Each structure stands twice: as structure tokens, then as C-alpha cells.
Amino acid sequence: MLGFALKPIYRCRVCGRFVEEPFHCGKPAVLVMDGVRRLRLSKLVSGLLRHFPWEACLELDEGGWVDIDVLVEGIRRCWRNRELYQWVTREHIVALALLDPKGRFELSNDGRRIRAAYGHSVKVKIDRRPLSLEELPEKLYHGTVKRVLENIFREGIKPMKRLMVHLTDRFEDAVETGRRHGSDVVVLVVDPRCLVEKGYEVYKAGRSVYLVARVPPECIVERIFVS
Questions:
Q1: What is the DSSP track for the chain?
Q2: Which of 134, 135, 204 is nearest to 164 (CA)?
Q3: pLDDT digit string, tens, across residues 161-194
């Protein structure tokens, strides 16, 4: 889930781009969505595209895509708290996707459809190219809490309710993930080359997220306790 503040989104009067600054191209921009609405909509769209599309009467295709207009209609007509989202339009969904700080969403080439880039618990098939050894970062991180360390070092990091294990190349993102589960945060450092050598394919999704089917214990090279 998203637990941090998001900036408002504006549309530039001159170039038409969605931006996070109230002035662009030398002129005041038009407010599209304040930070509170942006955060609320981002949480909802993430949930619908990753975990419970049926709750807004949506059917994702095999690749996880849904038409943006269908998504808007589902939110405004079918979602149980739809009275809170009658303001949502196609523009809000597109702006949300384009400016997401972690690249949680993908738009189709024609701009008509949207999907979650990662984080699914519903079964989807997203075709991605596995990274080569040369493309892998030196380290990847996974945020968790102390109480599960014994299981992790016995069985490895498993996807649990998601389809894939999620790792990140940003230490601070791993800390944020760990804090969702408790105050005793531990960041595990993973050697991505070890994963490939053990036969696991590693994929990149979004701006800083990496996916793998499982992380065996021997590929966890360090643990960092965060106060």
C-alpha cells in the first residue's frame, strides 16, 4: 500500500503535459488532482488492477490490461464506495499512471488501456525479458521484519500472496516496505547474480522494482537492522 504523501498533479496550459509543479512553461498550470485525491485514487487503482478487479465489475485480460474508460465506469458505478469517486475521469487515470513515482502502472501504446506493472495476486501473464548478468544491479534489497527471519533463512524469500517476489534497488524503498509489517524492520541484501546462477530469471518492472520467482537463502548476503 501507499503510505506517503503525494504531490498534486497539474496540467500545463502551454504544452499540455501533466506535471507536479503549479507553474510550467512560464504560466500557472491547471490543477488536475490534489495530493489527497491522488493518493486515494492510486491506492484504489493499485488494488483493482493487482488484487480485486471484480469488486469494480472489471475483467482483466490475460496480460492484466483493462480499458481505461471501463475502469473509470467501474469505479464510478460499481465500486462499493463509488460516492467518493464520482469526480474520476480518464484524465485522472492517465495522469496517475504517467506520474507514478515508482512506475506502478503501464499504459498501452495507443493510450487506451492500463495495467499494474507489478504486485499482482490475481493471475496474469506479463511478458518480460529476463535480465542478463550485465544488466543486473550489484545489490537488491527486500524489506521485512525480525519475526520472519528464521523462516526466510530456512526457506528463502517466497512470493506469499503475490505471484512473484518483489525486490528493489532502492534501500529506502525496502525500509518503507518493511515498515508496513512492523517496527522491527530488517532489510535483506540480495545478490542478483547468485539468483541467475541458481537458475532464477530476474525481471525489471516499474522504475526500481525487480521480480523473481523465489530468493533462496544462499543468495541473501547481508541483513541490516533498521531502528
A1: ---S----EEE-TTT--EESSSEETTEEPEEEE-HHHHHHHHHHHHHHHHT-GGGGT----TTS-EEHHHHHHHHHHTSTTGGG-TT--HHHHHHHHHT-TT--EEE-TTSSEEEESS---S------PPPPGGGS-S-EEEEEEGGGHHHHHHH-B--TTSSSEEEES-HHHHHHHHHTT-SSEEEEEE-HHHHHHTT---EEETTTEEEES-B-GGGEEEEEE--
A2: 204
A3: 899 999 999 999 999 999 988 899 999 999 999 9
Residue that is written with C-alpha cell 485522472 in the block: 92
| Cell 518480460, residue located | 128
Judgement on whether residues 77 and 157 belong to the same structural domain of the protein:
no
Cell of 43: 491506492
Q: Kindly indicate the confidence band of residue 5, based on its pLDDT and cuts at 50, 70 and 90.
A: confident
The answer to whether residues 98 and 141 belong to one domain is no
Same domain, 38 and 73: yes
Nearest to 220 by CA among 157, 176, 168, 161: 157
Residues in the chain: 227
14-58 pLDDT, tens digit per residue, is 999 999 999 999 999 999 999 999 999 999 999 999 999 999 999
For residues 58 and 224, what is the distance between their CA atoms, to the nearest angstrom? 41
CATH (domain of 162): 3.20.170.30
The answer to whether the predicted template modeling score (pTM) of the entire model surpasses 0.70 is: yes
